[in-house]
What does this fold into?
Amino acid sequence: MQKDYTNMWEGLGLNLENHAGLLGVLSDAYKNIYLSQRERPKGMEYFDFVISEIHGLRVEEIFEAKKEKRKIVGTFCLYVPEELVLAVDGVCIGLCAGAEVGAEEAEKFIPRNTCALIKAFMGFKLAGLCPYVELTDLLVGETTCDGKKKAYEIFNEITKKVYVMEIPNKKGEDGKILWQNEVRRFAEKLEELAGKKIALEKLKAASKIVNEKRKALQRLSFLRSYDPAPISGLDALLVNQVSFYDDPIRFTTKVNELCEELDTRVKSGIGVAEKGSPRVLISGSPMAIPNWKVHAIVEGSGAVVVGEESCVGERNFGTLLDDDFSSLEEGMQKIADRYMTINCACFTPNEERLTNIIDLSRRLKVDGIIHYAIQFCTPYLMEAFKVKKVAETMGIPFLRIETDYSMEDIGQLKTRIEAFLEMIEKGVIV
Ligand code: BJ8
It folds into this structure.
C-alpha cells in the first residue's frame, strides 16, 4: 500500500488534478513497457521502486534535506559540475522531463517549434506537475543550444531562481579559459547560496562520490558488451535516467549490486534476448524519464539496445574526474578539464563525439546505429549526417530518426525500425 503524499504535493502548490493524471499515465506506461519484460534482473526491483515513488519518497528526502538547511540545485545539462553542489552539502537534481505534458502551457511562452525537452521542463512547471522544481533553491541553466539559452530567460521570469553558466562554443584555449572562470564563478555562487566556503576535503569527498557513481555506470555499460546481453536497453536506460535524481551514494551501491548479478548472468550465458540478436546503439539527443519510446520499439521488435551515446548514457559517465588534487585551485582546474571532455553537439567542431561513436560501436559489438534526434533539436539533427558517414565507413547499418514525445508516430517508427532490423539481419548496409 503506497503512502498518500497528497498533503505534501498540495503544500508544494502542485495542480493535484493534473498531477494525478500524470502519475496515472506514468504508472500505466511503466507496467506496459517495463514490467512486461522477460528475464529481468532481480536488481531492477530497486529501480522499479524508485519509479513507483518518483514524486513520493525522494521528494520527502529532499524536504528533509531542506530542513537540515541543505540547498537544492536543479540542473538541465551535463556541464553543470555535480561535485561543486555536493561540496557545499547541496543536493543536485536533474530536471529534464521526457513527457508531452504541459506543452500547451509552455507554448504560451515559447514558440511551438521548440524541442520537446525544453517544452517539457517549462510545461511541467507551468502545469504544476513537478515537485522537484518547487523545492529547488537554484535552477542552473547553461548556454548550450539557442532554444535552451533563450528559454532560461523566460524561465527566470517565471521562477526567479535561474542562474546561467556560460558554456563556450569551441574547445580551444580561449574556450577553456572562459570555462575555467565559469566553473569558479559557479563555485562562488554555490558558496553564497549555502553560506559556506568550499573546503578542500569536502571537494575531494564530493569528487569521490560522483566518480564512484560514474564507475558503477561504466561497469554497467561494459557488461552490455556481452552476447547475449545480460540486461535490456530499457532497463539500462532507466538506471541512467534515475542517476540524475537519486541519492548518489545509495544509487551507486544499487548499480553495483545489479552489476554483480549481471556478472553471474554473463558467466552462465543468461541474457534478455537470444544470443545473436541484433545489437543496436542509440546515439543523439538525451532521453529523460519517461521517454522510453524508441527503446521500447527496438526491443519489442526483437533487437537489443546495447548502448546510448547520449547525455542520458555514455556522455554522462564516459570520463572520470582526476580526483588526485591537493589544492582547491587544482581541484577546480581538474573539474573544468573533466567537464570539457563532454561531447555535446552544441560544440563546433565536435569530432570527439564521432571518435567516441566508433569506439563504442566496436566495444559493444554493434550491428546497427539508430541516430535519435528530438524534433527541432538542430545540433543533433545536423550532426546526424556526420554520424551516418562514420557508420558507413565502419560498414554499420544506420537509421536516422527525428521524433518528439508524442505517441502519434509510434506506428510509423515501428515500421521503419522493423525494416531497419530486417536489413541488419540480411546484412544490408544503408
Ligand atoms: S550536454 S545534449 S544535456 S545541452 S534536445 S535542449 S540540445 S534542442 S539537451 Fe543537452 Fe547539455 Fe548538450 Fe547534453 Fe537543445 Fe537539442 Fe533540445 Fe537539448
Notes: The radius of gyration is 21 Å. The beta strands are 72-75, 91-94, 138-142, 162-165, 279-284, 304-309, 368-374, 398-403.
